[in-house]
Amino acid sequence: PLTSPKEMFDKAYQDGYAIGAFNVNNMEIIQGIMKAGEAEQSPLILQVSAGARKYAGQNYIMKLMEAALKESDLPVVLHLDHGQNFEICRDVISDGFTSVMIDGSHLPFEENIALTKQVVECAHGQGVWVEAELGRLAGVEDEVSSAENVFTDPDEAVEFVERTGCDSLAIAIGTSHGAYKFKGEPTLDFDRLEQISSRLPGYPLVLHGASSVLPEFIDMANRYGGQVSDAKGVPEDFLRRAAKSGVCKINIDTDIRLAMTAVIRKFFHEKPQEFDPRKYLGPAREAVQEMVQHKIKNVLGSSGKI
Ligand code: G3H
Ligand code: 13P
Ligand code: ZN
Ligand code: NA
């Protein structure tokens, strides 16, 4: 059933694991993730960006979710990823999303607080969860862009949560969106995570930009004509460590994109005579399932936690 993150995060916080929040854009992605969740009996967060809404269309997203939930008893959160303004949050709430992110991280502190507060007032009136963000992630996405990292200040994090009443907080500790997260050795500021977490006891934190950019898929993509060299993600050991901390939600999109693309590239190379989309979207869907199952089981620790 469609659920609130509340119970999921309470349990995750207590038992030291994290819930995977996977970005969805089409039917195959949703089906792959749902199958993985079923196989692992794991709670799931499916998240939709502004770009995903634009690509699939909000009506299609809602109907696909309806179909997914009809075939499953898993607890599933439907979450808006990187809501850019009040209006988009209000709109998806009226469509039935159980959680929204208002991303005011690009704004000055006081403006971020004001915007987040406005969304909290609207969302809480309808029992909807609000994730906010403080600090800035480096990296560029379609709808999300920022030039450089600004790590989250622990004192500001406490003040921000108190004054806005937001339910969870995305923090910047060195991750970034996309496939090129680190130039040299990957590092995350775990001291900072510890400081933020210890000043907000019991409070769920969120890690964006948490794809690992799995070498398996980079190699496969490049072997079959891709050009994604120098790609680097967050080592899975870092994510295991984060999952044991106050981090209750770990966002993964790039790893889904890479898994699908690698498998489809390989298919086109090996079977250039094929042109039935089901022949390559099927294996792409299976690759999503396998990858997500691996994350749930070996990295996030949410298997069997329904
Ligand atoms: O944080 C960004 C997510 O990866 C979504 O990306 O805006 O291209 O859908 P998108
Ligand atoms: P990745 O680009 O690391 O998958 O991050 C996704 C994300 O944070 C979505 O909000
Ligand atoms: Zn993000
Ligand atoms: Na955790």
Defining key terms:
single chain; alpha/beta; TIM Barrel; eight-stranded parallel barrel; 12 helices; 15% strand; binds zinc ion; binds sodium ion
What are the SSEs and their pairings?
Elements: H1 5-15, E1 19-23, H2 27-40, E2 44-48, H3 50-56, H4 58-70, E3 76-83, H5 86-95, E4 99-102, H6 109-124, E5 129-134, E6 139-140, E7 145-146, H7 154-164, E8 168-171, H8 190-199, E9 205-207, H9 215-223, H10 236-244, E10 247-252, H11 254-270, H12 277-300
Parallel strand pairs: 1-2, 1-10, 2-3, 3-4, 4-5, 5-8, 8-9, 9-10
Antiparallel strand pairs: 6-7
Helix pairs in contact: 2-12, 3-4, 5-6, 7-8, 9-11, 11-12
Bound molecules: glyceraldehyde-3-phosphate, 1,3-dihydroxyacetonephosphate (13P), zinc ion (ZN) and sodium ion.
What does this structure look like?
- The protein has helices at 5-15, 27-40, 50-56, 58-70, 86-95, 109-124, 154-164, 190-199, 215-223, 236-244, 254-270, 277-300; strands at residues 19-23, 44-48, 76-83, 99-102, 129-134, 139-140, 145-146, 168-171, 205-207, 247-252.
- It has 306 residues and is an alpha/beta fold.
- The chain has a single domain, classed as TIM Barrel (Alpha-Beta Barrel), CATH 3.20.20.70.
- The strands form 2 sheets. The chain has an 8-stranded parallel β-barrel, surrounded by 10 helices.
- The longest helix has 24 residues, at 277-300.
- The mean pLDDT is 96.
- Bound molecules: glyceraldehyde-3-phosphate, 1,3-dihydroxyacetonephosphate, zinc ion and sodium ion.
- Glyceraldehyde-3-phosphate (G3H) binds at residues 23, 49, 51-52, 81-82, 141-144, 177, 253.
